[in-house]
């Protein structure tokens, strides 16, 4: 079954690669079909997760629904396809989804293969989780300290080179948390949302805290296939229209994400721009 | 060349990573290699003299360590031992720390697995020492201990150089699992480089070459030793 599943995108990709150039542009074909497929997360609270009824919900889901309605109209259909970080760009390139709204951080390497939409959120990058009685209060104090982390995290290099931390990097979060619990490192340096979620677990929140907040934020945007100018334009207009309508400001409150200046400023700017 | 991009090799950062990683891998292999030979000698002696209590215990340990994956042993040493009490309180910070560092755990897992195999290798060498030689020594008044130390053990070590080389090369290759417990060996840094450069094939090729080079050097060295200590009339001339 796995084989077929992975071949499908390949066949589609070939088809798109051969025929795509000549065929009608994406915006027209989406409108014609009346279906907009959006890749979302269903395991990443509060951006996209399953609620107690098993319905997918979250910050980006609200935005996805709004964009869908703007593009295919109220009688059209928005198809939400669950994706993970490692397959979302492949699925987009293969044509299985039209748009990524799955905590997609903007960076140069990705910009080479996809087009980013307007940025609509600023996610806390790396934060430091440490025991309640820790002395660590700022990133300048981590020099020479042993910190647990995950191989491949965007910030590992900055932590080592700028702040001089001694990183112990694991492949999985289970090993990372286990090593931290055993006292092999004094703190965990990893994605803010993930560590906040860990603190919500029983036995973790009582003993540990976020000792140092992030030194950097990653802009979150949608992702579209490269070169689909009109489609990208339509999505960007829909995002700004959602911002002007205070949809994201309300979503922040609804999913208890606090109120960020970033989202409020963008809403203000969108209204000024006349959306 | 074939569209491969090796320009990252010129970056001093990646060079320093690979050198540091290489040093750790070599240190791991040397320490674990020496320990495994020592374990092999002591274990073989215990089995040879059928030492009470220790001999059955050694047999159990050999079976336990030889028949479990070294990676499982490593995870056991690294994650489980501190859970069952192998930890101490650091007097300076008051924090609870595991007794064994990551490096120690890797060395332990390597020398338990390959040490168990080394015992069997040396035992096979001892049993291939001709009984006439042993009997001749005994009739000249050598004690069993003297026979073991001056004939059986040296002859066994000389005859098993090729087998022991395989075991050492196995240690070098298995040491790559250090990267899974955040010990900064060459595989760990190669993984880091892959994640940063996205040049998986190129980095992997360099990593391969380095392991092949280490293993080849060890094999060549061992062949020279093997030739130097060859017992005339025994084994193949290579």
Give a written overview of the molecule.
In chain A, strand 9 (146-150), helix 6 (156-161) and strand 10 (166-170) form a beta-alpha-beta unit. Chain A is built from eleven helices and 13 strands. Mean pLDDT of chain A is 86; it is low at 18-22. In chain A, helix 1 (2-19) crosses helix 4 (88-94), helix 3 (59-72) packs across helix 9 and helix 9 (229-244) packs across helix 11. Chain A is elongated. Chain A is α/β, with parallel strands linked by helices. Chain A has two domains: 2-123 and 218-272, 3-Layer(aba) Sandwich (D-Maltodextrin-Binding Protein, domain 2); 126-215, Periplasmic binding protein-like II (D-Maltodextrin-Binding Protein, domain 2). In chain A, strands 5-1-6-13-7 form a five-stranded mixed sheet, sandwiched between helices. In chain A, strands 10-9-11-8-12 form a five-stranded mixed sheet. Chain B has 238 residues and is an all-alpha fold. Chain B starts with 11 loop residues before the first helix and ends in a 10-residue tail after the last helix. In chain B, strand 1 and strand 2 (96-98) form a beta hairpin. Chain B has a two-stranded antiparallel sheet with strand order 1-2. Chain B has helices at 12-48, 54-66, 70-80, 102-127, 131-139, 144-159, 161-174, 186-197, 200-228, and strands at residues 87-89, 96-98. Chain B has a single domain, classed as MetI-like (MetI-like fold, Orthogonal Bundle). Classes of the chains: A alpha/beta (275), B mainly alpha (238). Chain A binds chain B through residues 109, 148, 151-152, 156-157, 167-171, 175, 178-179, 182-184, 186, and chain B through 78-79, 82-83, 87, 95-98, 102, 180-182, 188, 191-192, 195-196, 198.
């Amino acid at each position: 079954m796995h084989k077929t599943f992975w071949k499908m995108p390949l066949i589609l990709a070939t088809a798109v690669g051969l025929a795509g150039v000549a065929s009608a542009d994406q915006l027209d074909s989406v409108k014609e079909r009346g279906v907009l497929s959006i890749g979302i997360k269903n395991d990443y609270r509060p951006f996209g997760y399953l609620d107690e009824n098993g319905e997918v919900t979250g910050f980006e889901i609200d935005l996805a629904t709004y964009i869908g309605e703007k593009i295919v109209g109220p009688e059209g259909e928005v198809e939400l396809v669950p994706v993970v970080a490692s397959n979302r760009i492949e699925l987009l390139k293969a044509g299985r989804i039209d748009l990524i709204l799955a905590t997609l951080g903007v960076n140069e390497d990705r910009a080479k293969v996809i087009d980013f939409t307007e940025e609509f959120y600023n996610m806390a990058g790396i934060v430091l989780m440490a025991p309640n009685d820790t002395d660590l209060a700022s990133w300048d104090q981590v020099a020479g300290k042993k910190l647990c982390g995950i191989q491949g995290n965007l910030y590992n290099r900055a932590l080592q080179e700028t702040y001089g931390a001694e990183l112990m990097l694991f492949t999985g979060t289970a090993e990372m948390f286990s090593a931290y619990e055993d006292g092999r490192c004094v703190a965990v340096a990893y994605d803010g949302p993930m560590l906040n979620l860990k603190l919500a677990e029983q036995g973790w929140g009582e003993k540990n805290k976020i000792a140092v907040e992030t030194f950097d934020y990653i802009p979150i945007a949608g992702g579209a296939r490269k070169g689909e100018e009109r489609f990208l334009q339509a999505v960007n207009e829909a995002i700004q229209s959602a911002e002007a309508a205070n949809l994201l400001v309300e979503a922040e409150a609804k999913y208890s994400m606090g109120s960020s200046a970033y989202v409020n400023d963008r809403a203000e700017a969108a209204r000024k721009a006349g959306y | 060349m074939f569209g491969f991009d090796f320009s990252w090799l010129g970056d001093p950062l990646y060079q320093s990573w690979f050198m540091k990683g290489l040093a750790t891998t070599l240190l791991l292999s040397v320490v674990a290699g020496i320990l495994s030979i020592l374990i092999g000698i002591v274990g073989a002696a215990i089995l040879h003299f059928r030492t009470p209590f220790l001999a059955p215990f050694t047999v159990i340990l050999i079976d336990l360590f030889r028949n479990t994956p070294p990676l499982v042993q490593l995870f056991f040493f690294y994650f489980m031992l501190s859970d069952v009490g192998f930890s101490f309180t650091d007097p300076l910070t008051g924090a609870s720390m595991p007794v064994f560092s990551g490096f120690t755990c890797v060395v332990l897992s390597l020398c338990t697995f390959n040490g168990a195999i080394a015992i069997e290798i040396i035992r096979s060498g001892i049993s291939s020492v001709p009984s006439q030689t042993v009997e001749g020594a005994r009739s000249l008044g050598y004690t069993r201990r003297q026979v073991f130390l001056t004939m059986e053990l040296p002859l066994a070590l000389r005859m098993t150089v090729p087998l022991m080389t395989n075991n050492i090369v196995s240690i070098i290759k298995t040491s790559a699992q250090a990267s899974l417990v955040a010990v900064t060996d060459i595989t760990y840094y190669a993984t880091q480089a892959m994640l940063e450069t996205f040049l998986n094939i190129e980095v992997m090729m360099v990593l391969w070459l380095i392991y092949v080079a280490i293993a080849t050097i060890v094999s060549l060295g061992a062949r020279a030793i093997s030739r130097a200590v060859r017992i005339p009339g025994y084994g193949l001339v290579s």
